[in-house]
Design goal:
The protein has helices at 2-39, 54-62, 83-86, 89-97, 112-121, 154-161; strands at 50-51, 66-72, 100-106, 130-134, 143-146. The chain is of the alpha/beta class. Strands 1-3-2-4-5 form a five-stranded mixed beta sheet, sandwiched between helices. Helix 4 runs parallel beside helix 6 (154-161). It is elongated. The N and C termini lie far apart (84 Å).
């Protein structure tokens, strides 16, 4: 009788161990693949992100273009893969209708370029993730959204929506 009890305990323990391992594997897979869910949905184009540089920003500002800057750091788990956070159909349509140029800014390693951007946007150090929308009509008044919470964050969408749509053919 005691042997059956010990055997049952071992089987129960092994079953619990296997269940825990399956849960850990599933959670790990979800965390690793989650960023790609928004980008690779069937039949949808991802937002055409461009890498940030101060020269590119200066060029876009001189052209009076609308700009969406998304800043992230690879060491910050909440912003480990920022494009998925804004890549929703609603945000994509708003970006396209306003001819907004989306720029990704990796702020993982401080540099003169990222420091100048922080000064321009008036943001404190180590604030992630962040989004900034710069209207071509008011380039000296960027709207910065600090520590936004992801694809359902109304702040990013509402700020984009506040920019008037551009007429077709405007460059």
């Amino acid at each position: 009788m005691r042997a059956d009890y010990d055997r049952s305990k071992r089987i129960l323990f092994l079953g619990s161990l296997v269940s825990a391992m399956v849960a850990v594997i599933a959670l790990t897979a979800w965390l690793l693949l989650r960023p790609f869910w928004f980008v690779y949905r069937a039949g949808q184009r991802p937002i055409p992100w461009q890498d940030y540089s101060s020269d590119r920003l200066a060029q876009l500002l001189s052209e009076r273009r609308n700009i969406l800057l998304v800043g992230w750091a690879d060491w910050d788990i909440s912003s480990a893969y920022p494009p998925h956070a804004t890549d929703t159909p609603r945000v994509r349509r708003a970006i396209e209708s306003r001819q907004i140029v989306p720029l990704l800014v990796n702020m993982s390693n401080p540099s003169a370029e990222t420091d100048a951007l922080r000064e321009f946007l008036k943001i404190p150090e180590n604030t992630f993730p962040l989004a900034a929308i710069i209207s071509g009509d008011a380039p000296d008044q960027p709207v910065t959204i600090l520590e936004w919470s992801g694809p359902n964050d109304e702040a990013v969408f509402n700020t984009i929506e506040a920019i008037p749509p551009r007429k077709p053919g405007w460059e």
